[in-house]
Structures are given as structure tokens and as C-alpha cells.
Specification:
There is one protein chain. By secondary structure, the protein is of the alpha+beta class. Helix content is about 40%, strand content about 25%. It contains seven helices and twelve strands. The strands form two sheets. Strands 2, 3, 4, 5, 6, 7, 8, 9, 10 and 11 form a ten-stranded mixed β-sheet that branches. It is rod-shaped and about 160 Å long. It comes from Citricoccus nitrophenolicus. It is a multi-pass membrane protein. Keywords: Cell membrane, Membrane, Transmembrane, Transmembrane helix. It is found in: Cell membrane.
Length: about 325
């Protein structure tokens, strides 16, 4: 088979098969690279970036955008305080106090929900700070609406989840699809305000970085395996065609040898028959020419033995 594989045709076929399989392997690697969805490293998420540069309003939040520490400025909208229940703080069940902040620099003056703090009761809360506020906090994806819906209480509106869809309808304003849990809030003067300020009735809500987990898309992994199989199949096709060509050459060589042997035997028999016919013909010509039968004629003289003479010598007669 090596002799067949060294033919220029099959060498070119092997090069083509290797190129095709190499392309398939690269496609498989591309699918495998897309299968893993790793979250941003902590060195990236813990470095504050402006909200308006990191995320845009009215857009679903991807995993690579969530959990990022952002900075933003704006003003709290009056009469937009809501309570989200139940929320735990050191094992105690209570409420998050959430207020709409109109983001400075947003494309259409969109707002974003801000978790101003935690309280054990809806009656114990602080009003939202007035004026321009500067925040640094963690950007988190909005939650889905809860089955409990919206509850109106004497102290305010209570929600079962922090869902942007519910808040947009409740506030009737354009909003980001997410919320911010601030680490610090300061006024334009630089004074600290909010839950971290002295004398506040609210406890600060500090959300740490989310667990770093890599998720996999099994569809991409399946496609990657398919491309690797295709790469192996390209090499297999080349080997199979080479093998078929080699077996065909062996079969043709065996047929040639068989034909040669049969032709040689037939030719030898034909020549023997011709020689026998020529001998018979020559014998018949000889008999017609000499008028004798070759089968009945005596052997040549050279083949006869001389017989001893029976005559008496004269000297013997005189005696």
C-alpha cells in the first residue's frame, strides 16, 4: 500500500484531506471556546467604571455586565420609595428600601432603582436625600416579578421582588434593567448621606462579588465534537479511497497473472497441435512421393546388422 500512497495523486489527496481536517479542527476549537462563558475576573468587576459607559438602559443585562462596581450621579425622584420583602440582614427578615435615581448622562433621563438600605419595619425608614448624589455601588440584574404582586400599606408600597418590569409600571418612567446596591453615597458637598451616614435609620446593604462560576453551552460542545468527527472522517475517506485503489490494483495484477498463465497454456497446446499436424502432413507427402508407407518400410541400411557369409572357400573344397 505504501507504493500506492506515494503516487502523486494520493499525496495531493492526503494534503487536501489534512487541510480540510485542519479547518474542521479550528471550527471545533472555535465552538469549544464559545461553549465556556466565564464571568469577568474580580480585578475587572471590582474596579469602578461609570454606569453610562458600562451599561445602557432598556437592554437585557448579560452576565459579563452584571456584578460590576459602577459610579453614577443623579437625583432621587420624590415619592418613588418602595419596600422589597422579604430580605435578610444578619439572619433577620426585613425590607429593602428602594428609590428611583434619575441618572445624570443617561440617554433619555432614565432612572435606575437604588437600594438605599435595609429596615426591619416599613415604619422605620429615612427619606431619600435631596439634591445631586454621587454613588458607588454594585450593578446587579433585575429580578423577575413575584406571584405576590404589589401590596399597598399605610407606610408605602411593598413588592415581593425587585423587578424592573413592575417598577417601570409603578413609576411610569424609563428605567435601566437592573439596580444598584451602593457602598457609599455622598452629596455634592462631599458629605456622606444614606444608610452609611451617622444617625440613619437604615442599615447599609453590601452585596459582595458573585461566585465565579464558568457555565458551559452544551450545544456548542456538541458542535465541537461534530467538527472533530468530521476532521477524522476526512482522513478516513482518504485512507479508504487509497485502500480501494490498492486492492483494485492487486486484483488487476492477479487477473493479469491468471490470464497470462491461461494464455501460455493455451498457446503451448495450440503450438503442439500445429506441430503434430505439420508432422502428419509431412509424412503423407513423403509417402506419396516415394510410394511407400513409412509405417511398413524396412529400417534404413545403416541400421541393419551384417549377416555372416554361408559360402565355402575354394581351398576347403579341394580338400
Amino acid at each position: 500500500m505504501l507504493r500506492t500512497a506515494l503516487k502523486p495523486t494520493w499525496i495531493a489527496g492526503l494534503i487536501l484531506a489534512l487541510v480540510v481536517s485542519g479547518v474542521f479542527v479550528l471550527l471545533g476549537k472555535w465552538q469549544m471556546d464559545n461553549a465556556a462563558s466565564a464571568p469577568p475576573p474580580l480585578t475587572q468587576t471590582e474596579t469602578p467604571v461609570p454606569l453610562t459607559e458600562h451599561f445602557v438602559p432598556e437592554k437585557a443585562m448579560y452576565g459579563t455586565e452584571a456584578d460590576q462596581v459602577v459610579t453614577l450621579s443623579g437625583q432621587f425622584l420624590p415619592d418613588t420609595d418602595v419596600f422589597v420583602h422579604p430580605r435578610l440582614n444578619d439572619g433577620e427578615e426585613g425590607y429593602w428600601v428602594v428609590t428611583a435615581l434619575r441618572v445624570q448622562g443617561a440617554p433619555q433621563d432614565e432612572v435606575i432603582p437604588v437600594v438605599r438600605g435595609w429596615t426591619a419595619s416599613t415604619a422605620a425608614s429615612d427619606p431619600a436625600p435631596e439634591g445631586e448624589i454621587h454613588l458607588t455601588g454594585r450593578l446587579l440584574p433585575a429580578e423577575g416579578p413575584g406571584p405576590e404582586g404589589i401590596e399597598q400599606t399605610p407606610d408605602g408600597t411593598v413588592l415581593a421582588s425587585l423587578a424592573s418590569a413592575e417598577l417601570i409600571n409603578l413609576w411610569d418612567v424609563r428605567s435601566y434593567a437592573g439596580y444598584v446596591a451602593p457602598f457609599e453615597m455622598t452629596a455634592a458637598s462631599g458629605a456622606e448621606v444614606g444608610a452609611t451616614a451617622a444617625g440613619s435609620s437604615l442599615e447599609p446593604v453590601i452585596v459582595g462579588p458573585q461566585p465565579q462560576e464558568t457555565t458551559y453551552n452544551w450545544m456548542n460542545i456538541f458542535y465541537a465534537i461534530e467538527w472533530v468527527v468530521f476532521a477524522g472522517f476526512a482522513i478516513y475517506l482518504w485512507w479508504r479511497f487509497l485502500r480501494d485503489d490498492h486492492l483494485r490494483q492487486q486484483e488487476e495484477a492477479a487477473l493479469d497473472r491468471q490470464w497470462a498463465e491461461e494464455w501460455t497454456a493455451a498457446e503451448l497446446e495450440r503450438r503442439r497441435a500445429r506441430a503434430a499436424e505439420a508432422k502428419i502432413k509431412a509424412t503423407e507427402e513423403y509417402e506419396r512421393y516415394h510410394g511407400v508407407s513409412v509405417a511398413a518400410s524396412p529400417p534404413p541400411a545403416s541400421s541393419q546388422q551384417p549377416q555372416p557369409s554361408q559360402q565355402t572357400h575354394p581351398s576347403q573344397e579341394s580338400q
